[in-house]
Amino acid sequence: MHDIVLVLGGGGARGLAHIGALRAIQERGLRVRALAGCSMGGIVGAFVAAGFDADAIEEIARGIRYESLLAFGEMGGIVGGDGLASLLAKHLPESFADLAIPLLVTAVDVQKGKLVVLNDGALVEALRATSALPGLIAPVRYGDRILVDGGLLNNLPVDLARTLGRGTVVAVDVASPPDRQLRFDERGFWERLRDVVKPQRALTVELFMKSFDVPQAVMTQMRLALTPPDVLVRPTLDRDFGIEQFGRIDEALEAGYQVARQALAELDA
């Protein structure tokens, strides 16, 4: 059986494609010996590290009422993290030490402006931190640090995966494309308010996300140029597939599976 080190990048709902990629990995009989992830990739990675296979993760993902995870934010976030924490605690062990496979996730210390690598201690809090998109999801107090989404500095931590031991490094990148188009429609106050109240994107949030996507793409490109993976999987997700569109799970699963299947076939060659 061939050993791999699996790297799963951040991308919100686009990260559902990781489940499809995992299914392709399992079909080829590849053994994941270590994982590195960020944001949604860190969360999916934690389930893999805890022993869940693709079918089990898909079942959990399909059973979630995502609106139930929303809560009023705090510490500068629009959305809180308590709902996500409860969901993760229901399925995952308390500590990194209890995982069957080594895992690390990235976060950013907002006070020091530095990348933080989390691979021991409280698992659920670490997963909350790695997925705490700044400005939207409340940051996390982790010891004496205040942490947010690692995608600010390292959304696809291939370089860190290389420190986890020997093995073919397979990276799955699901980040939003930086050239995703925004719609600058002229709308009145009540129409804009409707966008905020209903579970749709307001233009303000769209602009914020776009300003996050562009430097993230540049940072990822630079890091991959210095430390490329052995296999890079980029699921062909629609350009407008938003990070909040968890209802598009079928599309994401199929894209992750098909592209990973093709990329892994080339691994044999």
Shape: globular
Radius of gyration: 18 Å
- Beta fraction: 15-25%
Total of helices: 9
Major sheet attributes: 8 strands, mixed
- Quick check: average pLDDT? 86
Number of E-type strands: 8
| Range of helix content | 25-40%
Name the structural class. Answer: alpha/beta
Gap between N and C termini, in Å?
16 Å
Order of helices and strands: EHEHHHEEHEEHEHHEH
Which parts are unreliable, with pLDDT below 50 for 5 consecutive residues or more? 188-194, 196-200
Condensed summary:
39% of the residues lie in helices and 15% in strands. It is an alpha/beta fold and 269 residues long.
Structure, explained:
- The chain is an alpha/beta fold.
- The protein is built from nine helices and eight strands.
- Strands 1, 2, 3, 4, 5, 6, 7 and 8 form an eight-stranded mixed β-sheet that branches.
- Helix 1 (17-27) packs antiparallel against helix 3 (54-62), helix 1 packs parallel to helix 9 and helix 4 crosses helix 5.
- The longest helix has 24 residues, at 203-226.
